[in-house]
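User: Is it possible to get a 3D structure for a protein together with its bound compound? The compound here is manganese (II) ion. I've pasted both below.
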Amino acid sequence: MKVKKEINIEDILYQAKRKNKTINSKKILEAYEYAKEKHKNQLRKSGEPYIIHPMHVAYILANLNLDTETICAALLHDVVEDTEATYEDIDNIFGNQIAQIVEGVTKLGYLFKTVEQKQAENYTKMFIAMEKDIRIIILKLADRLHNISTLQYLKRDRQIAISKETIELYAPIAHKLGMYDLKMKLEDGAFKFLYPKEYENITNKLDEQINKAKQLLEKTKDEIKTQLRRQKIIASVKIETKHIYNIYKKMRQKKIHIEEIKDLFSIKIITNKKQDCYRILGIINTLYNLIPGTFKDYIATPRNNMYQAIHEVILGEKGVILEIQICSYTMNKIAKYGITNYFPYIQKGKIENKQELEFKNKLYGIHDSLELKNIIKDPKEFLNTLKSELLDDEVYLFTPKGDIKVLPRGATAVDFAYLIHEQIGRHIVGCKINSIEMPVITKLKNGDIVEILTSDENIKVKEEWLEIVKTAKAKSNILKQLKKEKQEAKKKKEIEILALDRKNLVLEITNIFAKNNINIQSVHTNSNENKVKIYIVIEITENKNLKKIINEIILLNNVIKVKEK
Ligand code: MN
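Assistant: Yes, that's possible. Here is the predicted structure of the complex:
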């Protein structure tokens, strides 16, 4: 996937067909002619004819395995927004699917123009679009990649806003989709404009380092190649350099100089089979010394974004420090292109069959960036959520701050409250859904922004909620609360009575309680000279009864004082 300087429609068709045999060239040509006609009098900020931009976006996508619909949509992606063409026009000429992708991208584009809008909100919109048709997001990422490469024609404030948003929003989404290659391009492209001085500084220093190490790196590479040939292992061996933005991050995080980065250079060895990876590892380890603590086997334990490879840092020829990365062709493809590897199987932008569901599960469920894990700490509950994920049976909701929460379809604001925190659920008195006050038992819909209204006081939980709430978390908490409330209602109380000692007084007192249906748990007396203190522990259900009882006791002969404890 390259951002080529000049491309024509033949390049796009060639790439698209090379990667995907189902490509409909005729339709793509039609889309191209239509877009060219619509944009004919428009220029980009660079002074180029406008059509150059959608063509680049289409070219990026053709390189990423995308289907006819997405490539057509890429060519047409700006016509609804920037020309007099309408959604209906696209629908009539190119069909519903393409029209919907174009519309999806147009809507996202519109939202993204309000820079002040919170990033979380944008993320949210992205996530919802992702749910709808994953191709919208991939087109949007390609659109951004081309825009980033032409940022020099914009004013400084726009450069900053766009590059910042690219690093904070677009790159993490590419990462989420496993599209590492695209992510890197977005980050490096944006970094150049966000911190031009740092970018230049790092590029210069990197060149210096490359020049210093070049010969030794080449020598190491050749030596590895020779040994692999001798062992009859087929593999490609190439030298790679860490990406600029990653160098910048590492230098900042570890507060180190570029010379101190151990994996600044790497030799990447890509082979056919998984077993060969370990054979290659054996060869490397006989040839060179390993730097202790640097061996990582991501084949045995893949990273969360499904990345698989073996990494280790070695001392190469004449002590040059470099990282060795070993993986298979398949692993390499997945690491670079993520979800787009699966495109031949993805129908209408929705992942449908079992294999893709598994992929989606891995990507959306276990992936690091959007962090379902953050929401669900209990592993059991996490598994349940993964299951409902597989059944495509959940709604995505948002806190007023823009945090994403996932609940099963049919869940209510009560579920939402308990999901945020037990104490929020405990004190819920109302809710606002999309800023409008609604009953707390309202079923929530995808994309709802839910604000829970709470009270400082303990709220009596409603038993009927048990029938309405969806999540185990809400249910168990409501049950717990109901039980607790019942117990509290049965609270024990100690009553202390001071009286002049006389016969039958205790009996008279206990009779009063019995008459009022109050259970006595224990009675103690403590006599002192002619006075007696009587301690009675009772179970009480209603407080107002107690006042009446105390008044009765006070009226008994020789009772001096009654105290509730
Ligand atoms: Mn565009």
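The longest strand covers residues 492-500. The chain has four domains: 9-194, 198-338, 392-487, 491-564.
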